[in-house]
From TrEMBL:
The gene is gluQRS. This is tRNA glutamyl-Q(34) synthetase GluQRS. The keyword Lipid metabolism does not apply. Belongs to the class-I aminoacyl-tRNA synthetase family. SUPFAM superfamilies: Nucleotidylyl transferase (SSF52374). Keywords: Aminoacyl-tRNA synthetase, ATP-binding, Ligase, Metal-binding, Nucleotide-binding, Protein biosynthesis, Zinc. Residues 1-23 are annotated as: Disordered. InterPro entries: Glu/Gln-tRNA-synth, Glu/Gln-tRNA-synth_Ib_cat-dom, GluQ/Sye, Rossmann-like_a/b/a_fold. GO terms for molecular function: ligase activity. Residues 21-264 form the Glutamyl/glutaminyl-tRNA synthetase class Ib catalytic domain.
Length: 314
């Protein structure tokens, strides 16, 4: 059940069918790939009578400059496409106590780690096929004296002892996805709560039972599913949707030209144009067809979604 001060249920009545969410980071304006993922999260939630919640992932304060202004522009762009969200809006920066409480709940399976990236790279065994290097466990079983000594050298990160659990999640688009869960970071050495912890704690508290996001996060799903269970939550349904890429095949980014609604408007293409492009890219509309979200929702079928990236030329 939802818990904590920002849990759903006080201001709104949660849908019995559960909830999806869209969780942008307010680092820059949303580009057409981010907007396409938001449209898909909306289709997945609305086509299954779920609520759709919006969560602002503003924890990474080094990177998130002027997050408030960026957030306001992101919300305006989502509204310009016609996407609506159910209350309450959740900001991760308001939920620091919930992350601390979750780590406390995990008890003595959480341990301090003093390793630098370089030490980890040098000690790690061979990388996995996707380049990921599991944490080699250097700080897992230090004595109190060793800990006290290492604490002098640098601030500790916090890791969770996962005993290399092997976890399989089922993704709506990718089928079964198996991953080995290493002792991943819950809090970084600079004190910031880690993405994997915050996402899981928030999804549980918000009653999220459907996670739709870009497929560059697919490899995080086994880790997050495992942590969900450790915290007593229910593993959500996952749909990792394909990316929009630039002409070089690389994940779209701000530097790729006219990619945000503001950039597109400057070249005479409005939100209606953007929605039509998104619809065409998902095989939901013909070239040149005027579309509304309601029409697209009636055509939406996860089984017909493309599984490969779409190129946006800008
Ligand atoms: N905040 C992440 C992003 O903008 C998404 C995290 C998630 O959906 O789990 O890429």
């Amino acid at each position: 059940m939802p818990t904590g001060p920002n849990a759903r249920g006080t201001e709104s009545t949660p849908s019995a069918a559960g909830a999806g969410r869209y969780a942008p980071s307010p680092t820059s304006d949303l580009h057409i790939g981010n907007l396409r993922t938001a449209v898909l999260a909306w289709f997945f939630a609305r086509s299954t009578d779920r609520d759709l919640l919006l969560r602002v992932e503003d924890l990474d304060t080094d990177r998130v400059r002027a997050a408030g202004e960026t957030e306001a522009r992101q919300l305006a762009d989502l509204a310009a496409l016609g996407l609506d969200f159910d209350p309450p809006l959740v900001r991760q920066s308001d939920r620091l106590d919930a992350y601390a409480a979750a780590v406390a709940q995990l008890g003595d399976r959480v341990y301090e780690c003093y390793c630098t990236r370089r030490e980890i790279a040098e000690a790690a065994s061979a990388p996995h096929a996707d380049g990921f290097r599991p944490y080699p466990g250097t700080c897992r079983d230090l004595t109190d004296a060793e800990r006290a000594a290492r604490r002098q050298s640098r601030p500790a990160a916090l890791r969770i002892r996962a005993d290399s659990a092997e976890v399989t999640v089922t993704d709506v688009l990718h089928g079964p996805v198996t991953g080995v869960v290493d002792d991943f970071v819950l809090r970084r050495g600079d004190g910031a709560w880690a993405y994997n912890l915050a996402v899981v704690v928030d999804d549980i508290a918000m009653g999220v039972d459907q996670v739709v996001r870009a497929d560059d996060l697919l490899s995080s799903a086994p880790r997050q599913a495992w942590l969900t269970e450790q915290l007593g939550g229910r593993i959500p349904a996952y749909a990792h949707v394909p990316l929009v890429v630039n002409s070089a095949g690389v994940r779209l980014a701000k530097r790729d030209g006219a990619v945000s609604l503001a950039d597109l408007a400057a070249t005479g293409r409005d939100a209606t144009w953007a929605l039509a492009w998104i619809a065409r890219s998902l095989n939901l509309a013909q070239t040149g067809e005027q579309v509304t979200l309601a029409t697209l929702l009636s055509r939406f079928d996860p089984a017909d979604l493309p599984l490969t990236p779409t190129v946006f030329e800008g």
